[in-house]
Write a sequence for this structure.
């Protein structure tokens, strides 16, 4: 079955461009479009959607609040935030609201398609280099690092799991973490899975958010 996508952006030209790219894929179908968050939520009442491509700055209801409302619903579609570096703080808020990742609006088509497929399959899309730049840019919005993280379940992590979590939070992929810690990618994936379970997190996006909010990683990418 094709991945059912809804495009949410107040710029018709952008939606048209995305629709042309997606329509050329045999495994994707644009089933709905919306010019703002309110219209997107309304569309979901009558249209089955797997992945929502969500802009952040829109009239009536912005993408952050729309994402929060959508992700709070049972069997909610995955949300992929589209952002620019001028709106980094919105992207972070979108991730906190439940989005499964973020991409830049000028992302190459191949990367956008890969991101949609990844999100649909249950993975999170956090481009490592983009994550580091993004977090650096909105670092003033985050709490300063503390020596004692405030999330009690972090104490449940083993030393290795905590080490892996810090690297995930700094935007490293499983392959990069494996190389850094001299482990196999399969082992890293297992560690990430255990971290998500122990901390009751949905995906590695939430790992990034939690690590910065609790001060495990300082704004700028360094571990506490």
């Amino acid at each position: 079955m094709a991945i059912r996508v809804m495009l949410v952006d107040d710029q018709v030209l952008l939606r048209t461009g995305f629709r042309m790219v997606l329509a050329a894929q045999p495994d994707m179908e644009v089933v709905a479009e919306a010019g703002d968050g309110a219209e997107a939520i309304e569309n979901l009442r009558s249209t089955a959607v797997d992945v929502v491509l969500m802009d952040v700055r829109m009239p009536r209801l912005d993408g952050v609040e729309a994402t929060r409302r959508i992700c709070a619903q049972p069997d909610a579609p995955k949300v992929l935030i589209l952002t620019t570096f001028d709106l980094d703080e919105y992207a972070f808020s979108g991730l906190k609201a439940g989005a499964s990742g973020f991409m830049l609006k000028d992302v190459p088509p191949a990367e956008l398609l890969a991101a949609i497929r990844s999100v649909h399959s249950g993975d999170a899309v956090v481009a490592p280099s983009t994550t580091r730049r993004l977090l650096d840019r909105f670092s003033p919005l985050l709490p300063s690092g503390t020596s004692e993280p405030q999330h009690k379940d972090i104490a449940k992590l083993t030393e290795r799991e905590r080490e892996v979590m810090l690297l995930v939070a700094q935007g490293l992929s499983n392959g990069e973490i494996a190389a850094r810690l001299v482990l196999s990618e399969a082992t890293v994936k297992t560690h990430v899975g255990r971290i998500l379970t122990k901390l009751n997190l949905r995906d590695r996006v939430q790992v990034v958010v939690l690590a910065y909010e609790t001060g495990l990683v300082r704004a700028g990418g360094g571990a506490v």
